[in-house]
Amino acid sequence: MLASQLHRNIYSFWFKGFKNGAPLTQDLTKTWFGGGEVDNYCRANYAAVLEDIRENRSYIEEMKQSPEYALTLTILLDQFPRNIYRKTAIPFRDFDPLALQVAHYAINYKFDEKLNAIERLFLYMAKHSESNSDQESSVEKFKWNHETALPLYAQMTKSFYEYAKSHKSIIDQFGRFPHRNNILGRESSIEEIEFLKTADFFGQ
């Protein structure tokens, strides 16, 4: 598949004709957070693409060279593995480092400033890293995104900002995400076990 076609396909599926300044629709948020049918769609249409990237590092250098392409590449590497390989170590082990590399590149070159507030949410979401510095950067970026977004998107951008802060607080406390321990074959500490009994944590 050509990189241009891959970009168009991902953008069309993920944003569904969204234009900056237009209200967010239930169809959009269902795609972003719904699972189920979305998992099946991603698996049918992008599992082979992700396997090609995992084995050959295809598309990465070509697609990270522009803001729009870097955005869709980040979505492909950060979001789709969570749909396709749900409840496995693969997203964290094999694709998060690649998504983080693209996100760092895009932010270093200020590509995020050329995207709208809703698009930027999914560039900054690639900060699923267990690095404290990445988490600090993520909170700063989500805060800036919320403060500069159109009022129409204030509720959505604030929720992502709060979500980023909750991620950072977990890393500050444990140095990692305890919710990943079982999947990654890590032994949980007593403190982590107690935390997991009461924590209400959305996503990993």
Automatic annotation (TrEMBL):
One Pfam family this sequence matches: DUF924
Annotated InterPro entries: DUF924, TPR-like_helical_dom_sf
Residue ranges of the TM segments: none
SUPFAM superfamilies xref list: TPR-like
Gene3D superfamilies the UniProt entry points to: Tetratricopeptide repeat domain, TPR-like
Superkingdom in the source lineage: Eukaryota
Protein name, UniProt field: 4231_t:CDS:1
Organism from which the protein derives: Ambispora gerdemannii
